[in-house]
Design a protein that fits this description.
Blueprint (H helix, E strand, L loop, with lengths): L1 E2 L2 E2 L5 H26 L1
Antiparallel strand pairs: 1-2
């Protein structure tokens, strides 16, 4: 993946990229649930 002149290589290739995406989605869902519980 390229952003401007910078080449970004995710750890573990395609699988690592997929895991990072899944983790970020999971983290955002968990944070949303926690915030709703606190409020």
């Amino acid at each position: 993946m390229r952003i401007g002149n910078v080449e970004i290589r995710p750890l573990g290739g395609g699988v690592g990229c997929l895991l990072m995406i899944l983790f970020s989605i999971l983290a955002s869902v968990v944070l949303t649930v926690l915030i709703n519980l606190v409020l």
